[in-house]
Amino acid sequence: xxxxxxxxxxxxxxxxxxxxxxxxxxxxxxxxxxxxxxxxxxxxxxxxxxxxxxxxxxxxxxxxxxxxxxxxxxxxxxxxxxxxxxxxxxxxxxxxxxxxxxxxxxxxxxxxxxxxxxxxxxxxxxxxxxxxxxxxxxxxxxxxxxxxxxxxxxxxxxxxxxxxxxxxxxxxxxxxxxxxxxxxxxxxxxxxxxxxxxxxxxxxxxxxxxxxxxxxxxxxxxxxxxxxxxxxxxxxxxxxxxxxxxxxxxxxxxxxxxxxxxxxxxxxxxxxxxxxxxxxxxxxxxxxxxxxxxxxxxxxxxxxxxxxxxxxxxxxxxxxxxxxxxxxxxxxxxxxxxxxxxxxxxxx
Length: 348
Known about the structure:
β3, α2 and β4 form a beta-alpha-beta unit. The chain is α/β, with parallel strands linked by helices.
């Protein structure tokens, strides 16, 4: 397998560290550089102690970046779009893990990010980074915008239903419980360490920017009506997403199961979890820690047409670095599961 030279821009945060951990064991990757302005010249293990003895890489500054085959951008929101012209001179392919290029519509970006986009002409050039929805476009892509973690869990959980057109016009209500590392998934250059917070708080009862991604990706035949809330809870990794949707018809669970199997039956990282007994009958983010899987289950309300959909991911993996590596594999013709086969831990 020929190796591609890859660099990570903004590598001191949790996402950059997780991405480095995966790429160090990717047989087709040569990691050329990883940047951090504050930590330039220091060993990466100062920020990512889990990689001790695994790598002797040191952080570089952005001005020291050399040309390579592909750049992963793990910068805080707003920085990628400001520096994208510079990054394009360094690599023909870019995967951006920030939110700068996730929304294709300029007006939608301004609504959800409350700022003007400084490079709106490039929004259409980036493929939205959920492989299960956009695998075909990724194969020929030069630029991919990795999806938000909350958005990934919600979209994957609901996509088969909206694709089949079985959801009514009533609002769908999506509630995410997320680990504290989500707040630091893009933390960089000395931001707080979320695992020390321990607080349980609803940090976005409405107006969360990931709502824009959910609307964009689920509006297949018509605009969707969704309400989204995100709550940080006292765990480090993981997202537990509970969605309440109302169906057009009184479908039974067997019909719903067939829709999910039709959409995801051949997907390597989607598992339909709906057991009849035991303590793991529905998705649990704890057993997904470190894995690139998304587990999805559902329960039909017997007294109404309400369907409760539960989806779970590791926000730093399928919600960030793992999904980015999955997209990397697709766009470069590698086996999609390369460097991503770790199944998660149990018990945790």
